[in-house]
Amino acid sequence: NVVKASLKKKPDYFAPRTRNFTVKNLPASVRAFVEESVELCRPSDVHVMDGSERENKLIIEKLINDKTIVKLTKYKNSYLALTDPRDVARVESRTFICTTNKSDAIPTPANPSIKGSLGNWMSLQDLEKAVDERFPNCMQGRTMFVIPFSMGPVGGPMSKIGVQVTDSPYVAAAMRIMTRVGEPVIENLQEGADFVKALHSVGRSPNMIPSWPCDPERTIILHKPECNEIISYGSGYGGNSLLGKKCFALRIGSTIAKREGWLAEHMLIVGITSPHGDKKYICAAFPSACGKTNLAMLESALPGYKVECVGDDIAWLKYNAKTKMLHAINPEAGFFGVAPGTNWKTNPNAMASMQENSIFTNVGHTSDGGVWWEGMEKPAEGITITDWLGKPYTGKAGHPAAHPNSRFTSPASQCPIIDPLWEASEGVPISAILFGGRRPEGVPLVYESFDWEHGVLVGAGMRSEATAAAEHRGKEIMHDPFAMRPFFGYNFGHYMSHWLSQQTRHGEIKLPKIFHVNWFRKDADGKFLWPGFGDNIRVLDWILRRVDNDCSIIEATPIGYVPKEGSLNLEGLSPQPDMKKLLSVPKDFWKKEAESIEKYLKEQIDKDVPAQVLNQLQALKERLS
Ligand code: PEP
Ligand code: MN
Ligand code: NA
C-alpha cells in the first residue's frame, strides 16, 4: 500500500503544474519495471518525465533549492553543479559485467596469477547480493524520476529505447540533454517491445553532503547483458550515472550489437567536405580525454575544407544493404565533454555549443556569473574565480580552478557545425576508421593498415597515456584496445572475432580503410612535434586521398603505409614541423612494441585471441626483423 501510494503521488513541486503523465499510462512492461523499482527503493513519490520545457524548469528549480546547482547569470539557462569531491570520475574498478559464464564477459588470462585488465566480472548471485546490500529503501524521502529515453532518433531503425529510474534530479536534467527523453519515446515503445532497464540511485552514506548525496565507498555499476539491464549505485557522476551513455550505448550496446551483427564503438563521427565538394564521413576511436571532441568539431586550417560533426563519443555502426557500406549513427543527443583545455582557439565550436542550455560540472565559477577552467582564455581584469571546491582560486600549483575531469553538458543541436545528417535514422556511410592515442614516442603521426585484418591488430594494439577520465594515476602508457578497455560488454577475444566477421557476414561489403593517428609525438625536449587541433585537417586530407586509392602518396613501412615525403599538405604552416621525426618508424621501438602487444594478447586474452590476429602479429614481427 505504501508502494501504491507513492506510485500515485506526484511530487509537490510538479503537482499540479505538469500534465498527467503517470505510471498508469506507461506500457505494462515499463510499469512493471517501475513498480518493482519502487517496491525495492521506496521513494516518497514518482515522476514520469514527459520531456517538456515546463518540466525541465521545475527540475532545475528543485536542483537550485537543493543547492546542487547554481544559476550561471552570464549565460542563458545554464548552471554549475559541484559534486562531492569523492565523486568526480568513472570508477572502473567497481564496474562489472554480470553473466552466467564468466568467459562470456571477460577473457581468461593465461594463468591464474595474472590479473585480468579487460573488465570485471561478477556472478548473477553476487549481483543479487550487491543489490540487496544497497538498494532496499535507498530512495526514502526522495522522488524517483522515470526517464524514458531513446538512443538514436526516436523510432529510427538503428535506435534503441531505455528506461532509467533514478533518485537524482541532476541525472534527470543531464539525461534530458544527452538523450532524447519523454513522451515521444513512450509513444514509440510498443506494448511488449524490448527496452533496456536502467536502475540508478546515488545511494546514501553517513557522511554525505546534502547538495550531492552519494556513497563513494559502496559505489557499484552492474550490467546484465543477458537481459539488457543496468544497475548503478552510489555515484551521481557522468559515466556512472547517465546510464544511456557508457553503460547502455557501449557495454550493453556492444553485446546487443554482437548478437545482431553490428558494432557499438567508442568513436566520434565527422563529415569532411573537400575543396572539390566531395563529402565523406569517418569515425575515430581515441581513449577518454584524448581529443575526440576536438577532432569532432575541427575548424580546418586548410582553406576550402569543411568539417561537420555527427557525434563526439559513441558510434553505432551497421551494414547498409543499399550502399554496401557500414553506416554510423550517434546514439546520443548531447556532448559530455572534458572542459579543461577547451577554449576559443582549441575548439571554438565546443565553446559556441555551451553558451546556453548547458550544465557545467566541477569547473571554476567567475565573479561575473560565468565559468572558468585551466586552458581557457584569461578572465577580464577584476574578475575573481571560485574553484570547484568552493575556495578562492589563487593559481597556486596543485590547486586548479577546475577538476581535471570537469565537464560541460550541452545539446548537440547547438554545435555551429552540427552535420545536416546528424539525426539521419539510417546513419551516414563511413569511409575510414581512425584509431589513436597519446603516444609521446615512436608512433608516427599517421599510418594506414594494409587491410581490414591488419587494422583489427592495429585496434587491438592501441595504447595511450592514462588521463583523468577515470581513477588511474600518472602518465603511464596503458593498453586500451579499440579505446574500449573500460567499455567492453563482452569478452574482448570474441569482440576481435566479431570485428573480423564484418568481412564476410554481410556478403558484398566496402569496408572502411583503417588508420592510426598520433597527434602527441614529442621531440627529445618533450615538445610536441605536431601543432594538432585545426591542423589535423592536413592528416585527414591525406587519409581522404587514400580512401580514393591514391597510390602515389604512400610509402610502405613494417607497420603500415605512411605518407610519402612531400605528400602531406603543409601549406601555410609555420614553423614547418619536422616531418622526418613525425613519420619515422624506429625499428627498435617497434620490435619492443610488437613484443608488448604480443605479451598483452597472450597473457590477457590467451586462447580467445583469434588466429587471424596472431597471424597478423607474426607477420608484423617478420616485417620488423
Ligand atoms: C565519464 O567519464 O563520465 C565519461 C562519460 O567518459 P568519457 O570521458 O569517456 O566521455
Ligand atoms: Mn568517452
Ligand atoms: Na570520467
Structure explained in plain terms:
The protein is an alpha/beta fold and 625 residues long. The protein is 26% helix and 22% strand. The chain contains 17 helices and 30 strands. The strands form six sheets. Strands 1, 4, 5, 6, 7, 8, 9, 10 and 11 form a nine-stranded mixed beta sheet that branches. Strands 12, 13, 14, 15, 16, 17, 24, 25 and 28 form a nine-stranded mixed beta sheet that branches. Strands 2-3-19-23-18 form a five-stranded mixed beta sheet. Strand 13 and strand 14 form a beta hairpin. Helix 3 (53-65) runs antiparallel to helix 6 (169-178). The model has no long low-confidence stretch (mean pLDDT 96). The structure holds phosphoenolpyruvate, manganese (II) ion and sodium ion (NA). Its cofactor is Mn(2+). It catalyses: oxaloacetate + GTP = phosphoenolpyruvate + GDP + CO2. One of its GO terms (molecular function) is manganese ion binding. Residues 33-258 form the Phosphoenolpyruvate carboxykinase GTP-utilising N-terminal domain. Belongs to the phosphoenolpyruvate carboxykinase [GTP] family.
